[in-house]
Amino acid sequence: MLTPSQHKTLNFIQQFIAHHTHAPSLTEIAEGIGIQSKGVAHRYVKALAEEGLLFLHPGRKRGIELVNPASDKRLTIPLLGKIAAGHPIEAISGQDMLDLSTLYGPNRYALRVTGDSMIDGGIMDGDTVIIEPREMANDGEIVVALIDGEDVTLKRLKYRQDGNLALIAENSTMPPMIYAAERVKIQGIVVGQLRWYR
């Protein structure tokens, strides 16, 4: 599974190629994903190549090639109607289609949740959350937060009047985590969720 930084790198490369019709340089990748080091950008690109998502042409300037460019095909399933979760209602079939491409868009990625810090918010251990990459988030949104450049966590974001940030667990047994704003980098927000029962 790709890391959030690797997803961000892949998304940038896809968008750059779609806009410019050629691959970005390592300098452009580093700038595009908001980092200083070309070496770190190279590490992300190499990891994407090892995952089979990119092909690298050694010695060639702008030698990055997408293996599976984003497809325009839409993934849909039938939306057959509504079902009651309270009192039973009359079953009325519909003819709509549910467009899953809005959930699995080209600028989104999935993360598997481990742990029970978000269970009161309906996010259980083993669930998959769909993330939209963002560097800013609104107060109260559930975010992917990178702390001190090392640890990543899924928590609800709260801006405090003292300028610090609170990362709040949706679990009444866990206290909020308070950090100076400069210690926390927002990497994305939760826009969807999946849970499998089989």
Verbal overview:
The protein is of the alpha+beta class and 198 residues long. It has two domains: 4-66, Winged helix-like DNA-binding domain superfamily/Winged helix DNA-binding domain (Arc Repressor Mutant, subunit A, Orthogonal Bundle); 109-194, Umud Fragment, subunit A. It is 19% helix and 31% strand. It contains three helices and eleven strands, in the order αααβββββββββββ. The protein has helices at residues 4-20, 26-32, 38-50; strands spanning 54-56, 64-66, 76-81, 93-99, 109-112, 128-133, 142-147, 151-159, 165-168, 177-179, 184-194. It has a seven-stranded antiparallel β-sheet with strand order 5-6-11-7-8-9-10. Strands 1-2 form a two-stranded antiparallel sheet. The chain has a two-stranded antiparallel ribbon with strand order 3-4. α1 (4-20) packs across α3 and α2 (26-32) packs across α3 (38-50). The chain is globular, with a radius of gyration of 20 Å. The two termini are 21 Å apart. 20% of the residues are buried. The model has no long low-confidence stretch (mean pLDDT 84).
